[in-house]
Specification:
By secondary structure, the protein is of the alpha/beta class. The protein has a single domain, classed as Glutaredoxin. The protein contains five helices and five strands. Strands 1-3-2-4-5 form a five-stranded mixed β-sheet, sandwiched between helices. It is globular, with a radius of gyration of 14 Å. The mean pLDDT is 93.
């Protein structure tokens, strides 16, 4: 599977309708973003069970703003519609693989239980 470009029309539904979604926030002028792109694309082919999506922060500024993107590239990971990882910086292939392993291994019942105990404002991004 190749990466999917997200826009304001399909960002939310992609996050909620898929078990695991990795989102790469990038821009064409960003050198580290361009350097990370082949790693992300390779991961998408290796893990067809995971949606690998990209958001062009120049074209989709409102998504980037809503997500609180301050530095690119930023990788966000969602599992069962829940943001479980958000970190700026390009990841080397081994680190991306480790991240995917950790996301797959998450106990989502525990994650949901933790989220339910937090005040509503704490869960907002």
């Amino acid at each position: 599977m190749t990466t999917k470009n997200l826009t304001h029309t399909d960002f939310a539904s992609t996050i909620t309708d898929n078990a695991i979604v990795l989102v790469d926030f990038w821009a064409s002028w960003c050198g580290p973003c361009r350097a990370f792109a082949p790693t992300f694309e390779q991961s998408s082919r290796k893990h067809p069970d995971i949606v690998h999506a990209k958001v062009d922060t120049e074209a989709e500024q409102h998504i980037a703003a809503a997500a609180g993107i301050r530095s690119i590239p930023t990788i966000m990971a969602f599992r069962d519609g829940v943001l479980v990882y958000s970190q700026p910086g390009a990841l080397p292939p081994a680190a991306l693989e480790e991240l995917i392993s950790q996301i797959k291994a998450l106990d989502m019942a525990a994650v949901h239980a933790t989220l339910a105990q937090q005040p509503a404002a704490a869960g907002q991004a």
